[in-house]
Amino acid sequence: MENRSIAIDGPAGAGKSTLARALAKEMGYLYVDTGAIYRTVALRCKQVGADPSDPEQVAPLLEGLDLRMAYGEDGVQHMYLSGEDVSEDIRHHEISGMASQVAALPQVRAFLLDFQRRQARDHDVVMDGRDIGTVVLPQAGLKVFLTASPETRARRRCLELEMRGQKAEFFDILHDIQQRDYQDAHREVAPLRQAEDAVPLDTTHLDQKQSLEALVELAKGRFSL
Ligand code: CDP
Ligand code: CDP
Fold first, then answer.
1. Which of 5, 21, 38 to mutate to test the pocket of ligand 1 (most atoms within 8 A of CB)?
2. Which has the closest alpha carbon to 104: 44, 48, 180?
3. What is the value of pTM for the model shown?
4. Is residue 76 part of a domain?
5. Is 225 a member of any domain?
6. CA dihedral (98, 133, 2, 118) positive or negative
7. Cβ–Cβ contacts within 10 Å for residue 3, how many?
8. Ligand 2, residues at Cβ distance < 6 Å
9. Which secondary-structure segment (H or E) carries 154?
10. pLDDT tens per residue, range 174-225
11. Partners of residue 8 on adjacent β-strands
12. CB 29 within 8 A of CB 4
């Protein structure tokens, strides 16, 4: 059977989650935000005071990790940690950097691989992250690599944080984004890179509506809808 999963990868602030969510709605697919899963592991590290870059401190946490993902009536993905809805807590600026650190640990990636694949087993999905097209769903029917300039991405992230009532200093965010780009692209396991069969889409000069139109066009062309 044709595989209709859609993999969207790219660096922070490229528009992955916003666009993947909108594309999933348009196609009637399930949207899976894999970054939220890494963020939840990072939050666990913060709760217990573990260093997210130290495998000896993080690996033991995985064994007892009570991590769950569920969809609300509105179709929004919620993350639960030890039974508590942590969907808002994981969006904190501090958690972004910690997520990138835990995501570099091979133990964490191996632990989460099956968890992510299971989501795509029973549904057509639009899944976004860093290694979806290369590692998690290499058989995806459409792979898109979303990018935008670091300055554009930092500007978008600042606006987003401000809207959430969090303080956002443009140059701090830009620095964090560049650091995270480097960390994500240079780690040994599943680094951020464009899959050979992925379609690149640069959203620097595209607003959300234009970006979504480009994605829908790609999906329709690929799946002959
Ligand atoms: O939304 P944003 O792009 O800022 O980050 P995210 O997608 O929520 O992911 C947070 C961090 O998790 C990233 O910086 C990556 O290091 C890591 N991640 C990953 O390694 N692999 C994925 N499939 C998804 C996220
Ligand atoms: O998931 P990722 O980190 O790649 O990016 P995002 O959270 O979807 O997008 C970051 C911000 O950029 C959001 O507030 C989007 O609304 C905005 N965005 C935009 O202004 N123009 C686009 N073409 C795409 C996203």
1. 38
2. 180
3. 0.93
4. yes
5. no
6. negative
7. 13
8. 10, 12-19, 156-157, 160, 203, 206-208, 211
9. helix 150-163
10. 999 999 999 989 988 889 999 999 999 999 999 999 999 999 999 988 887 6
11. 128, 144
12. yes
Specify the CATH number for the domain of residue 9: 3.40.50.300
**Residue linked to tokens 């690996």:** 59
- Cα(37)–Cα(19) distance, rounded to whole angstroms? 18
Give pLDDT tens digits for 66-121.
999 999 887 889 999 999 999 999 998 889 999 999 999 999 999 999 989 998 88
Distance from residue 11's CA to the centre of ligand 1 (Å): 8
Q: How far is CA 176 from CA 74, 87, 215, in A?
A: 32, 21, 27
In a domain, 160, yes or no: yes
What's the gap between Cα 11 and its chain centre?
A: 9
Ligand 1 centroid – CA 76 distance (Å): 18
Give the chain's domain count.
1
Q: How far is CA 206 from the centre of its chain?
A: 20
8 A C-beta contact, residue 65 and residue 41: yes
Which range marks the domain in which residue 50 is found?
Answer: 5-220
Indicate the DSSP class of residue 179.
H
DSSP 174: H
Tokens of 157: 């992230």
- For residue 129, tell me if it sits in a domain: yes
